[in-house]
Specification:
Structural class: alpha/beta
Radius of gyration: 22 Å
Strand order of the largest sheet: 8-7-6-9-10-11-12
Strand content: 5-15%
Number of helices: 13
Order of helices and strands: EHEHEHEHEHHHEHEHEHEHEHEEH
Length: 347
Amino acid sequence: MAKYKILTPAGASFTTAGGGYDYEMEALQGMDAEIVECPATEAGFLAAARDADAVYAKGMQFTKPMIDALEKCKVISLGSVGVDSVDVTAATLRGIPVTNCPDTFIEEVADHAMMLLLATHRRTIEQDRMVRESRWKEGRPQLLQVPRLMGMTLGFISFGRVARQVAKRARAFGLHMKAYDPFIQEIVLSDYGVEPASLSELLSTSDFVSMHVPATPEAQGMLTEKHFRQMKKTAIFINTGRGPTVDEPALIKALEEKWIAGAGLDVFQIEPPNQENPLLRMPHVILSPHNASASARFDPARKRRVGQELALVLSGRWPMSCVNPIVLPGSPLRRWQPYAMDRGPNS
């Protein structure tokens, strides 16, 4: 039996084929650690949780009863940016750090957000269908109604890592930019050529509204009918953040009643969306299957990051990225970085 037992639900996360744990184990080599699978059910997890030294959280929801059953767990690690599959409050009450991968797929998501903005603005899907359906002459008249992109306004709701990289891309297209984020210093916005704005000001003046709010309990259903009513009738809504941060029926109503002109969505309130969802039949809505972060490096990068976080904590050191850093100072783990790393609790 290995010294450290890392418990994880059987089956893959994100990928469909799985593929073993070679990438995760790279950082754990020589530590006498093993990744042990349990059934991907609450009952199966509970039966194996008592002696787990760490949890590799994937493939299911990790509830308070599951976390409370961990008697010697030192860390819960996720191979994703979002942590909404783990009851972080329960973990914090138990003094267990929860780690994620907040800086691994930023460029990919920023590319995807910019792609959705450009494609919705230039009606790419509709134009493609016109060519395929022998409606060639309809293409130019449609775009003659579309204003030039340069000089239009992009508004960011939340200005974290992804939004900042989108801002770099958007600046090259000549977009004017604003952001609403009460947790970010204004000087950070100015470094990216972005103006601070209240939420109501941003909604009422932006031609594109890009949603980047994480799925925290406080942000659940943050954007409602009253917010979509404040937007321009010509505005386009982009969401590469999390679906539950938006009241989806309100968004659907806004599109159906033409309070706004269109949307580019990578995330939904319920995933995958029901085939009866009206969003699937709207012509000026571009959809993708919550895959903005995907690229050829996605699996190797996130799996290696999980292994690194597990190895750090099991060797008695602070993780690189902890979403509940309040637990670290009172833990037996030691802060090891000799200088600020500008990420997680170590900055």
